[in-house]
Structure formats: C-alpha cells, structure tokens
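Researcher: I'm preparing a figure for a lab meeting and need a structural model of a single chain. I don't have an experimental structure, so a prediction will have to do for now. The sequence is pasted below. Please return the structure as tokens so I can convert it later.
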Amino acid sequence: MFEDTARITVKAGDGGNGAVSFRREKYIAAGGPDGGDGGRGGDVLFVADTNISNLASFKYRKRYFAPDGAPGAAKRCSGKDAEDLIIRVPKGTLVTDAETGRIVADISGDEPVLIAKGGKGGWGNSHFATPTRQVPRFAKPGMPGQQLDLQLELKLLADVGLVGYPNVGKSTLISVCSAAKPKIANYPFTTLTPVLGVVSIDEERSFVMADIPGLIEGAGEGVGLGHEFLRHVERCRLIVHIVDVSGSEARDPKQDFEVICRELSTFDPGLAERPQIVAANKCDVATEDQLADFRAFIAEKGLPYFEISAVTHQGVTPLINAVARELDRLPPIKIYEPEPEPLFEPDSSNPFTVRVEDGVYIVEADWLPQVVGSVNMDDYESLQYFQRVLRKSGIIDRLEEMGIREGDTVSIFDLEFEFVH
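Model: Understood. Here is the structure written out token by token.
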C-alpha cells in the first residue's frame, strides 16, 4: 500500500540524573563529594533512505522514543550517553509540527537531520562543592529530551511531473523514455501510485520524471484518486501536460487542458506559474483537423508544444530533448527551509518553585527546560532573552522576596550563576 502522509510522535531521551555521593576510603576522612554527571539522552535523527519509497511503515507504529542517558555514579563516574534513534524515511519527506504547521525539516539530502535533541545529563554533587558549601547533598536531574508531534508528508523529488487526465498516455510515455515499468492498461486510474523514472540524455546528463496518477475535474478539492498525489507535483521544476489529442475517450482535448490547469491552480496557485510543456499524445490516431485545432489553441497560450505518440515513439525524442534544454535553465528542485521554533515568552501565570539548599536558590518549573535549552551563554541577545524570562515570569521577584542577596548562587537545571541586582 502506498502511503505518502503519516502522523507520529517522537521523543528524544532524557538526560541521566547526577549522582549524590561522597568519597569514603580507609584512612581518608571527609573525602568530599564525588558524584558523577548523568549521561546525555539520545537524539532523534531522520535519514533519507533511497530504498524506501513511501511512508507505509509509519501506518501502525506512531511513537518513537530515543533511550535515556544513564545516571551518574560514585567516584565521579559519568553515566553513559544514550545511543541516538535513527528513523529512516523516503527521500523528499517534509517534516512539520503537527500542531502549528511549522516546517521542522526537509529530508532531501544525504546527511542525517536532527529532529529532537536529547536532554543534557544532570550534574553530580561534585560540581557544587565550594569553600562555604563543602558537603552538597544534592545533584541535578537530567534535562528532558524534546518531544514533538510530527506530520510527515512525502513530496517526490522529481525534475519533471507528467500530469493529465487518466488514460492519456502518461504511463506509456514514462515507460518509453525510462526504465520505469508502470502498469499500463486501457481503463481509467491504471496508475494508482506515483511512478518515478530516470531519463538519460547522454552519459553525463539525466533527469527524474514522475508519472502522477490521473487527475479529473474537482481534483483540487479532493475528487477522484489523483488529488491524493497532487503534492508530488509541488517540487517539480517543469510540468509536462499530456493531452489525448485524438479525443479517444470522448472528451474535448481543449477542455481537458483547461480543467487540469484549473485543478493545479486550485491545489496550489504557484503551480499555475510553473513552466509547462504541452504534449499532444495519440497523434497517430488523430485527424489532421483535430491536430490543427489543438495546435492553434496551444499557440494562443504561448506554450511549447509537441505532437507525439508514446505507443509508436513518434516525436518522443524531440520532446525529451526540449525538456532537457528547459531544465538546464531552471533553478534546482525546491528544498523547504526549516523554520525556527518560536521563543517561549512566559508571564506571571506560569508556575514555578524556589527552594534553598545549602545556601543555593534552586528554581524549578516544567517550562524552564525549554528556555534553558535555548539559551547560549556566549550570546548577548540570548542572555537578554533569559533575563527577560526570569523577570516576566516573576522568578526575580520571588527570589528577592525570599531574601536573596547579591553574590548568592541561583541554580536552574544545569545553569548556576551569581545573583546580581
């Protein structure tokens, strides 16, 4: 079964907790804290796999969790970092946030793409020893890993998309000019899934052609089978519009052309602006009057026009050469740029707790890991954002109410800093 959409949940691993431990050896008194740090949680990575053609493997398994990092141990032993979770998807899979629609990644390259970052391991109590705090009896918990609800959508990476009504000869054409062998028969909707074929021009040049299942009137609104696959035209640099010029299906070729153009525009207005070549197929069984009438109609549109017969191969080579020339001057296949995750802006309604342990003001809140994970302490604007969060959430006011003084230590997950008014 061909599946080109899926919704899944992914979660990166949590960081391991830091350890609370004290060195205890014979003849060594007050050995001091020696709790180790927790290990890093596993990341969730997506990798494009050319051996996978669709998203069917995600139909039944919906949740993917990376392993957690191991906790720290005594003798300053750090916990083991967790292995990353690698999820293989078809090349051309667009990953978006299922709730907001934000583009998370476009899995179109060969390198693994980080989707959800594992949490950092918590610090062991050995980090918190100071001249005034020699017996720290606390450690840090690991940071939680990111969790995302994702929408996966396969958009084929094809240079050329063949569009047209069912049974106009798209499958025959792609079988003639590539090694693809789609099912071909004389009835509508023979092609039920998109078919990719590589068309070779010479030893150094080739392009990918996609046979998009036949469209009918209303496809842009979801009528028929072909509407499910219109998304696969979106990346195509060039559209080759196949029309049955002979009218063998008792339809008007000119009306067919107008209907398909309208459906493409309805689905995505940008497709109406995509470069297009018109191929009048079945010209071997069309009358000269039919050819002349349709030829004049396309000439008024100002579009490149070729008369072909995919069955007899008549006119196919000039069409393919024209496609190759057009592709040489067009920009590369569209790659979607990921959109940054919006910054969290808390207010006084966001809950948090502050407690004091060994003179350290420890701030905790469910929403703080997201903030801490986005802060770069070496970047001035990032620090300004962090200070704004502390002020707007009421954390600064609470610390002052609790009697914090300048120079006292504040601890927020794996961040520890001196308080400054």
